[in-house]
Amino acid sequence: MSPDTTRRSDRSRRAVLAAARDLVVEVGYPRLSIEAVARHAGVGKQTIYRWWPSKGAVVLDAVRALSEDETGGITLPDTGDLEADLKTVLRATAVEFGDPALSALLRGLYAEIAVDPELAMLYREQVDRPVTEAKLARLRAGQRAGQLHPEADLALCLDLLYAPFVQRWLLRTGPLDAAFADALVEATLRAFAPVGDVE
Amino acid sequence: MSPDTTRRSDRSRRAVLAAARDLVVEVGYPRLSIEAVARHAGVGKQTIYRWWPSKGAVVLDAVRALSEDETGGITLPDTGDLEADLKTVLRATAVEFGDPALSALLRGLYAEIAVDPELAMLYREQVDRPVTEAKLARLRAGQRAGQLHPEADLALCLDLLYAPFVQRWLLRTGPLDAAFADALVEATLRAFAPVGDVE
Amino acid sequence: MSPDTTRRSDRSRRAVLAAARDLVVEVGYPRLSIEAVARHAGVGKQTIYRWWPSKGAVVLDAVRALSEDETGGITLPDTGDLEADLKTVLRATAVEFGDPALSALLRGLYAEIAVDPELAMLYREQVDRPVTEAKLARLRAGQRAGQLHPEADLALCLDLLYAPFVQRWLLRTGPLDAAFADALVEATLRAFAPVGDVE
Amino acid sequence: MSPDTTRRSDRSRRAVLAAARDLVVEVGYPRLSIEAVARHAGVGKQTIYRWWPSKGAVVLDAVRALSEDETGGITLPDTGDLEADLKTVLRATAVEFGDPALSALLRGLYAEIAVDPELAMLYREQVDRPVTEAKLARLRAGQRAGQLHPEADLALCLDLLYAPFVQRWLLRTGPLDAAFADALVEATLRAFAPVGDVE
DNA sequence: GTGTAATCGAGACGGTACGTCAAGTCTTGTT
DNA sequence: AACAAGACTTGACGTACCGTCTCGATTACAC
Questions:
Q1: Is the shortest CB-to-strand distance from D183 to strand E under 7 Å?
Q2: B82-191 fold
Q3: Are the beta carbons of D170 and C113 separated by less than 8 Å?
Q4: CA at D43, C1' at E30: how many angstroms apart?
Q5: Cβ(C176)–Cβ(C165) under 8 Å?
Q6: Which fold has domain C3-66?
Q7: Is the CB atom of residue B34 positioned under 7 angstroms from any atom of strand E?
Q8: Nearest-5° angle of CA A160, CA A164, CA A166?
Q9: For D22 and E1, how far is CA from C1' in angstroms?
Q10: Does any CB of chain D come closer than 8 Å to the CB of residue C1?
Q11: Fold adopted by A8-66
Q12: What is the CATH number assigned to the segment(s) D9-66?
């Protein structure tokens, strides 16, 4: 599709991402080396350097590859009940983060992002934005349905919902369980409840 | 005081932390090497390896050293107005995070913590807990003063207040300005407002 | 020619041996470090470790390189007068051992050989054997010419000729001069004189 | 006895030499470290540095200690038959060199001597000279008894006898057996035979 | 079909840093 | 004063990777 991938070997690309994924899980992100990825993938080092600018970029790609099958746009469930839907989604996310492969990859990615502004930009645009759009869409629908304050700052609302979740996972300050997910949803919805909507 | 530090050279300890601080700012955390820290500190590498288990531990100590002078316990302002006090604190924190030295050190620390559970534990116990205690104390005072719901989960309340703040800083998803600080405080306080307290 | 040297950089090889030679002369064998050789040769340490198993092996190679230009086989002079020829050779060897570069290299080599059986084997096969063969050939010619006892043990004869010489040089028990060389030759030839050949 | 050993702890001295001997045998001379000697001997590093100038000096002392019990002067057997006596002595020396402890110590010592002129001097004076004197005395007795040429250079004679022997041991060019010892003695005595004494 | 040029695997290269070991000096308290 | 203990600076060890650079050997498009 894009012109700079004309002659690119898809076999090598997949092998590199798979090797990166496996090795991150096996030895951890800091001990992941381009050298080892090339070895495991049966690929020349130059092939990696040709297509990815850094170790972090490889891992970011590996993260994207994990959810590559979802060809269509991401959509959140919409049963009409915003609170229930958000709890469903947050609980599902908690389960996802329990996957050692995804978890190890994401930890490595966050470590690099914290420290590499370039990669942070790529992350925001390629990983974060699509899902954030989907989440915002669901919130907007809820807002239209009168389940959120009409002037609620939906971006801020998303921050309240997800940032504590990610932080708890990243710093391991507590378990990512359903109770936490539910409490987060409830508190956030209270903060952006429509007028007079307090029990 | 403690027996295992009997013969430790305080001169070397300070020099290492200062060198680590300076070098993180200068070249960034990933390019910070124990070798360079030793060189800049005029210290043998072995002295660093003798007293710190890893590069991350040195940086954690350097972060602690930045606030070492505050000998007394940490206390948050308490003017009686919880909202105003929280805004003051959050705005001040935003300013602090603008300091290149602190910012670079913390980014490095977060990068390592994301990926090193041992260091994460040290961080929680030595850096996070003291300030979290102080924040909780202020919230508890506000709760007693009727400015928070009597059954509010204060830990969750802190998460809503700070996690979005830290996440925005870490991922550079937006500016850390007074407007954001104020919006965070207001949303969080709405989520944990005392009964019937909606204007 | 040999398959394991296909991609080897000859430029690096020469630079390493030259640096080793120069540094041994400059600082002495015990203070010769692989690190310094690499630095002086403008070569990565790994390149040295890739092609030589130890410091001693580098020095052995440097010794070989000193006489590398002599492409042809080694041959001792044969004027028909064995005694005169041996004196010529031994005197010449004494002069050679006066060369600081050769002397320093050989001292280092002997020091390592004394203590490393592997290197000792390499030395015997790659350095000692060729010249020993040449010396034996000359003795054999003398024997055929009736200048040595027909049943003389020529290997032992060589030992008597050269071992005292090397020992005096190694332990510095005396000067390596023409008088000593001549005395050695005369005594040895007396020991292996043909029958009835006593003045 | 000597003034500079007034306060010297003999217990420490013995412990150091014993530790050096044991460690040389165990790990080989090049991997022998002052640090390990001190540890094994239960002695402070400073104590070693106070009394010995170098690792080589410690080993030289350890070699001397191995033959310390022989309080009296060294004397070679004198049965009246020089050839038989020399064969006895050389065969005995061959056996001695088979002792792993002595052999390992001597190899280390020779390695250092090859490269350290200071130590070489100490070796010549403290180890070599006494035994060389004894050997010379026996040769002189043989010379007086008419078993050697009256004008034989006895020092050279000793060189022919011992240097090939030491060289074979040092370079491992062959076994140190009785046959070699006998052959050496016979060849050397032929070289310095009294006039007309050829069978 | 057959060049031909980019990509591929492999891996040597000059480097930097790793974490460890030991050297030799210095300090502290004990005998 | 000499001792055991051990922290200190220094420097080298041998290893792992970095990112660049040749090497042939595919390989896939243009002719």
A1: no
A2: Tetracycline Repressor; domain 2 (1.10.357)
A3: yes
A4: 14
A5: yes
A6: Arc Repressor Mutant, subunit A (1.10.10)
A7: yes
A8: 120
A9: 77
A10: no
A11: Arc Repressor Mutant, subunit A (1.10.10)
A12: 1.10.10.60
Q: Which amino acid is at C159?
A: D
Q: Assign residue D146 a region (left: φ > 0; alpha: ψ between -120 and 50; beta: otherwise).
A: left
Lowest-confidence range among B189-198, C16-25, C82-91? Answer: B189-198
| pLDDT band at residue B141 under the 50/70/90 scheme | very high
Question: Does residue D129 sit at the C interface (CB-CB below 8 Å)?
Answer: no
Which 8-state DSSP code applies to residue D177? -
Domain ranges in chain A are 8-66, 82-191
Cross-chain residue pair B166–A167, CB shorter than 8 Å: yes
Which of the nucleotides in strand E have any atom less than 7 Å away from a protein CB atom?
Answer: 6-28
Amino acid at C182: D
- In the structure, how far is the CA atom of residue B7 from the C1' atom of nucleotide F7, in angstroms? 7
Please report, as a single letter, which amino acid is at residue C65: A
Is the CB of D168 inside 8 Å of chain C's CB atoms?
A: yes
**Does residue D29 belong to the interface with chain C, where contact is any CB pair within 8 Å?**
yes
- In the predicted structure, residue D198 carries a pLDDT above the cut 90: no
Per-residue pLDDT tens digits for C4-34:
557 899 999 999 999 999 999 999 999 999 9
What pLDDT is attached to residue B197?
Answer: 55
The residue assigned the tokens 């909606």 is B198
Query: What would the DSSP string read from start to end of C150-190?
Result: TT--HHHHHHHHHHHHHHHHHHT-S---HHHHHHHHHHHHH
* Token pair listed for A108: 């490595």
CA–CA min distance A65, chain B (Å): 21
